[in-house]
Amino acid sequence: MRLRTLLPIVVLLILLLHPARARDWFESESRHFKVVYRAEHAVLVPQILDAAEKAFKPLSQLFDYTPSEKIIINTYDFSDYGKAGTTTLPQNFIRLEIAPLQLSYETMPFNGRIQWIISHELVHVIVNDQAGRVETFNRSLFSKVPPEKAQPLTVLYSHLTNTQRYSPRWHQESIAIFMETWLSGGFGRVLGNFDEMYYRSMVFENRDFPTPRYLEAKTSHNSFLLQTLFYLYGARFSAYLAHHYGSDKLVEWFRVRNSYEYLHFEQKFKRVFKTSLQTAWTNFIANEKAFQGSNINILKSEPLTEMYPLTDQPLGWVTKAYHEPDRNALIFGFHRPHQLTKLVRFDLKSKTYQKIGSLPSPSMVGIASTAFDRRNRLLFYTTNNNKLFRDIHVLSTASGENKLLFRDCRVGHITVS
């Protein structure tokens, strides 16, 4: 009893003695947005609010959307590479990791990263927060209900109050990527180099394309591209629909009218496009094969630059490679499915590689940041690449000695001067 009586007093004293704790978070608002941020992020807040309002104006007009509350943007800085996430449950919330974006393999073309990423995430908020009359009524009774594992019944209430949130991931990302590219003046994944070469490779190698249901159920777990596939196919399908049916119909597919209907996204597709989703998807794949087949024929009409394959084994994701002139070898790391990530020396004469180290916790695309000091034969590389701040190590390629230089430091791409 004494402990229970003293505990609130102790907590109060701690708060009084450390008043700065209550001031860790700050707020700044515009007409439609509220940014919650740390003091060290204050310099970005005007840019964030400006980018959000610039994206909101055309999107709210396109989707005839009026928010019931200010959309919250919360800034974080827990990772060496930036990203963002969005939810509309129980309120409209964008989590913005402010670090620079991952640029490996040109997977994310953009003009300004803040404008680009907010444009993408804001589409998710608007598309998923739209409500017809039945949803609006349900929200007046229950608010918007997030699903909880401990309370399975919340799934039903969540669906009744936020139906748009529960469509497949590729469907969610398709409109976000289309709008992200449009609102950024053509800089986005609809017109990205990585996407283009992915589809051209699929056609060149005569690979089978997944159906929407297979994509949702299987492909994301059977490919080292993982969730990237949702973005690849969603983006390409939306571009196909806009090109063949018009962008107005694409937007109409995602717009929620003020009606009493609960329409499944496939039912709505058939109403808007006058054909089934499966038929449209089949036509989309046939169109892609014809388009890339034509591109491949154009490339075949010209002689190839003389090429010398170094290995007939696919390596998966590969770091930047460095030449060791005295050994006539390459130093690099690679991440192949179902194998631990290796740092290797690849002999250019024998076409064999020797493991010189391992690379724990690689990131999915760029694996790690690396740099090579040829004079001193030191390879610098990062670990913890897929979580929080990274560590920097140095490996002597002459002796094999490995040393940790910096733990949990902020680091982007590294180089040797």
Major beta-sheet overview: 5 strands, mixed
Strand-pairing-aware structural class:
alpha+beta
Q: For the largest beta sheet, what order do the strands appear in spatially?
A: 1-2-3-5-4
Strand segment tally:
14
The proportion of strand residues reads 15-25%
Global morphology: globular
**Rg, Å, rounded:** 25 Å
| Uncertain regions spanning at least 5 consecutive residues | none
Instruction: Please write the string of helix (H) and strand (E) elements.
Output: HEEHEEEHHHHHHHHHHEEEEEEEEE
Helix proportion of residues, in percent? 25-40%
Q: Kindly, what is the distance between the CA atoms of the first and last residues, rounded to a whole number of angstroms?
A: 64 Å
Mean pLDDT: 90
Distinct helical segment count: 12
